[in-house]
Amino acid sequence: MTTTPPHQPPASPRRLRENEDFMERLNRAMKDRLAEVREAHDEDPDEPFGFFCECSDVDCRRRIRLEPSRYEAIHRDPDLFVLLPGHELPEVESVVDQEFGYLIVRKFV
Ligand SMILES: [Zn+2]
């Protein structure tokens, strides 16, 4: 586990959003690869999968289990992200919905 230096200056909202965009790109890449692998092995393409939490903490590598189709549906709105309860930051996002074990938030930075 990595630790955050105690006296690090607070990241700007823009910087926080960049991390969230980065995690989203990572999740999308995993999802695409997963779909290929599942298709090749004749597996259920929509079995829940552990996506990365898309919060603004650069060190967060927690996973959220949800169906790839659900993940895709949420991200059809480019300002919506999925993250774990308690990982939301009121200065950059507002919670729009809560589902099984995760939050859907809207970023406004
Ligand atoms: Zn997180």
Give your account of this protein's structure.
The chain is of the alpha+beta class. The protein has helices at residues 13-40, 68-74, and strands at 49-52, 63-66, 80-83, 93-99, 102-107. Strand 4 (93-99) and strand 5 form a beta hairpin. The protein is elongated. Zinc ion binds at residues 53, 55, 57, 60, 62, 83-84, 87.
Task: Please give a quick description of this structure.
This protein has 109 residues and is of the alpha+beta class. Helices cover 32% and strands 23% of the residues.
Shape: elongated
The percentage of residues in β strands lies in 15-25%
Number of strands: 5
Describe the strand arrangement of the main beta sheet, using strand numbers. 3-5-4
- What is the average per-residue confidence, as pLDDT, rounded to a whole number? 90
Topology readout:
Elements: H1 13-40, E1 49-52, E2 63-66, H2 68-74, E3 80-83, E4 93-99, E5 102-107
Antiparallel strand pairs: 1-2, 3-5, 4-5
Bound molecules: zinc ion (ZN).
Zinc ion (ZN) binds next to loops.
Features of this protein?
two-stranded antiparallel sheet, alpha+beta, about 110 residues
